[in-house]
Structure prediction request, 283 residues.
Amino acid sequence: MGAPRPPEPERAAEVRRRFGEEARAERPDLAALCLLVGAAGDGTLDEAGEDAAQIELDRLAGQVPFRPGGAASWAEALAELLGGRHGFHGSPGDYRRLESSFLHEVLLRRRGLPILLSVVWMEVARRAGAPVYGVALPGHFVVGFGSPEEHVLADPFNAGRVLTGGEAELLVQGTTGATLDPSMLEPAAPLDVVQRVLNNIRAWAAARPERTDVSLWAVELSLLLPSHSARLRHEHAQLLVRRGDYLRGAAELDAYADVVSAVDEPAADRVRGQARAARAMLN
Prediction:
């Protein structure tokens, strides 16, 4: 079975509109944003399906048997419920599946990438009253319980196993070769989590040149986030050209060139050349 296909244009436009509104909200809803990412990539997910996923998160939170007092107790309770009783975890094969980046599919399959499993942990724990936050370790997302100074970390990809300080350092070294820096343990903001989810989707699509449709909607959602790299506009323009939308792609290239010209005029000239080449494709 192939990867999910994006929705029809009308539904896709509505999803982008709602995503942009939620991203600009005073307190963005992480679960809602992740479900809208899933809706942008999976045409079978409608609003009723989004509601069902939110209800499932509520249901799981209602199964937390008690309100533990300390951070370690919260971590153990969530691991027992989600990793043990319900079997949420990950495996290397999950990195090859686009569905592993969709919250509604992770809730259904009980499998996913570290960051989406962490979203499940955070959303269930938050609903149950736990002090919880995401930790964007390089190469491997985990969750933290208690105050950030306590450093009680759990790895949802490994069924919620609580990590010691040394294990967290080995995890970073094993995935990136870098040394664990205290700044890596700071809580991740919801929009930063969503951006990392979209980055993972873009990386998945980049390895599959035939899936420029996935690259396109992932970049377009990224551009709706209040803070994003200016180079995303260049990537967006190039995708439009690759997909045969030469006029829109050329216009985007010209707009990006205007931004770049303030700091690098030669680079701006090269981008304008790309815009002219795109328009020439219409002849």
About this structure: The first strand starts at residue 132 and ends at 137.
